Amino acid sequence: MTTLRLPHPPLLQGAPPREEILQVENLTKSFGGRTVLDGVNFTLTRGSVVAFLGANGSGKSTTLKCIMGLETLDAGSIKLNGTELSTLRGTALVRVRSSVAMIFQKIHLVPRRTALENVCAGALGRLSGPASFSPMFFPRELKEEAMAALARVGLADRAHEKAGRLSGGQAQRVAVARALCQRASVLLADEPVSALDPRAAEEVMELLAELAREENLAVAAVLHQPNLAVRHADSVVGLIDGRIEYSGDISGLDASMQARLYTPNRAAA
Ligand SMILES: Nc1ncnc2c1ncn2[C@@H]1O[C@H](COP(=O)(O)OP(=O)(O)OP(=O)(O)O)[C@@H](O)[C@H]1O
Question: What InterPro entries does its record include (predicted)?
Fold first, then answer.
């Protein structure tokens, strides 16, 4: 097993080094006595995209869910901005976790609300009073921030459209804008393009890579298409049966590595 060391691009003289924002060490998780993650290590770095690849059931989604706190870990450590998450409780945990946003294959927008209102919802964690339960009371500054986020994903002209009327690709971009409005610095994307047509998938991946570079986000994306990883990711975590088979630069994702990651019944081979 290799510990992921994200590639640092050649640094310009005087440029700050890429900031490692999330460190996962020895992540271990079982369900009903069956180990599905076994000592997984990797680091997410601001400004870069890591693709998580592997066959169905290899543990990709569970890894992201453990980071989000949607699953508990059996062992291991997750540090966000240097803070070990397991040491935090209550509001301190909520505050630290608010810098991590997740987007899913099944896009979770409120269909009867406008794109703008859905994007504003990214800020709910830092709102209080009436604004925290009704879009009618969203403050003007928040709407401006949400509008800027929509413009950033190329959808300013659809701001007042009901989310339920958007195409899949547009809806996923609204979900990305909501993460921007959350002011997240880590964006976890669990199969963000699996439900999209090839062109929309390409556009969403381009957007994620651009946001990583230009907004200095750390992006982790579970993908089922190695070719999308090759085009848009900087590095790869490749899982087989809950163990890291490959972690490192995207250039290492050659045909033989792809074949290895997707060979069925490896344990039985
Ligand atoms: N809540 C759960 N209870 C029991 N088993 C689970 C649970 N969640 C995941 N698993 C099992 O853990 C293993 C890893 O699942 P996970 O969803 O992380 O894989 P994945 O690599 O994301 O797969 P896919 O590509 O199919 O989405 C699978 O065998 C799955 O059945």
Answer: AAA+_ATPase, ABC_transporter-like_ATP-bd, ABC_transporter-like_CS, MetN_ABC_transporter-like, P-loop_NTPase
Residue ranges of the chain assigned to CATH 3.40.50.300: 19-99+185-264
Distance 102 CA to ligand 1 centre (A): 17
Task: Confirm if 206 and 147 have CB atoms less than 8 A apart.
Answer: no
**Is the Cβ atom of 248 under 6 angstroms away from ligand 1?**
no
Q: What is the pLDDT of residues 78-114, one digit of tens each?
A: 999 999 988 888 888 888 888 999 998 887 899 999 9
Q: What percent of the chain has pLDDT over 90?
A: 72
Whether the CB-CB separation of 204 and 221 falls below 8 Å is answered with no
Q: How many CA atoms lie within 13 A of 267 on its CB side?
A: 9
The residue nearest atom 1 of ligand 1, judged by CA position, is 31
- Global confidence as pTM: 0.88
The 3 state secondary structure assigned to 115-182 is: HHHHHHHHHHHHCCHHHHCCHHHCCHHHHHHHHHHHHHCCCHHHCCCEHHHCCHHHHHHHHHHHHHHC
What is the ipTM metric for this complex? 0.97
